[in-house]
Design brief:
The chain is an alpha+beta fold. The protein has a single domain, classed as Ribonuclease Z/Hydroxyacylglutathione hydrolase-like (Metallo-beta-lactamase, Chain A). It is built from eight helices and 16 strands. A seven-stranded mixed β-sheet has the order 1-14-13-12-11-10-9, covered by helices on one side. The protein has a seven-stranded mixed β-sheet with strand order 2-3-4-5-6-7-8, covered by helices on one side. Strands 15-16 form a two-stranded antiparallel ribbon.
Length: 310
């Protein structure tokens, strides 16, 4: 079941409002969200490293160049979601908020579990260059508590582990708007074609960095029970409309992890101090496939050269 994908106009460029007082700011293939009004707003996630100017442009377009949020909330601390958290938090003099289980990766105590690209697919190939390093942020980092979001009391945060142990999503009950982070995304990142087409539909979290697939399933099921009318995810176009709740229900009922992979066999274990145990590596066919492709390419070039000499 497909959903309606909300796209910005040519004039809006990468900045679009898909629900009241919810502004998506795209930083390459990762989304950040501005939630609230000029009287008080928060920033959810901060995009890829180096994308702070895009965030500032979105804020200026919304509230003016001198505006600053009440807080920065991270759905999780992966490099593509926390890439500008420190720079923006220090510039604005605001705290960074995250789930307690995400804190070890933001205060320099632990790296994330190893990335697993053995399942193949577009994002798996790209993820071979991604960083799993934790970071020691210089800005103030505080754990989320209770269930409401500081600075945005109409929003509640929900622990949605699976992609990371401390992953959270945000939900506004009044109009059933969901900020899903990477608990689920709205494009098929395993497909090379969809990196361009970005067909808007609920999809699995980015597979190479998801370290507990059973927890990921439970999180998707919990979000489906909310029956959201609008979803903004970490990757892909926002989706909105009456079909979203049913589409998410179908997705949760048919949720399917990758056919194989390190964390499909067993989940990583983590606690307050970070990673505690990871399953052993599994066979990775990529090096042999890459070597075979290189040999074919060399052979083709040699044959072409021989044909030209005739």
């Amino acid at each position: 079941m497909r959903c309606y994908g909300v796209q910005g106009s040519e004039e809006e460029g990468l900045i679009v409002e898909h629900a009241p007082d919810v502004l998506r700011v795209a930083t390459a293939f990762v989304n950040a969200y501005i939630l609230g009004t000029a009287e008080g707003w928060i920033l959810v996630d901060t995009g890829l490293p180096g994308a702070a100017p895009l965030i500032r442009r979105g804020v200026a377009a919304r509230f003016g160049s001198s505006a600053r949020p009440l807080a920065i909330v991270l759905t999780h601390g992966h490099f593509d979601h926390a890439g500008n958290a420190d720079a923006l938090a220090l510039e604005w003099d605001v705290p960074i908020l995250a789930h307690p289980l995400e804190m070890p990766y933001l205060i320099g105590r632990s790296d994330y579990p190893p990335i697993d690209s053995t399942m193949g697919g577009a994002i798996a190939v790209m993820a071979r260059t991604f960083s799993r390093r934790g970071r020691k942020l210089a800005a103030q980092v505080l754990p989320l508590s209770g269930d409401t979001v500081p600075g945005a009391p109409e929003w509640r945060w929900i622990h949605t582990p699976g992609h990371t142990h401390g992953h959270v999503s945000l939900f506004r009950e009044s109009d059933r708007t969901l900020i899903a982070g990477d608990a689920l995304i709205t494009m098929d990142m395993d497909s090379w074609a969809e990196q361009v087409q970005r067909t808007p539909e609920p999809c699995n979290p980015p597979a190479p960095l998801t370290t507990d697939w059973e927890a990921a399933r439970r999180s998707v099921e919990a979000l489906a029970l909310l029956r959201p009318r609008a979803v903004g995810a970490g990757h892909g176009l926002p989706i909105a409309g009456e079909s979203v709740a049913d589409a998410l229900h179908v997705f949760a009922r048919t949720f399917t992890p990758p056919a194989h992979g390190r964390y499909v066999i067993a989940p990583a274990q983590a606690g307050p101090d970070g990673v505690e145990w990871v399953p052993p590596p599994v066979y990775d066919p990529f090096p042999r496939q890459a070597a075979g492709a290189a040999l074919v390419a060399v052979g083709a070039l040699g044959l072409a050269a021989a044909m030209r000499r005739r």
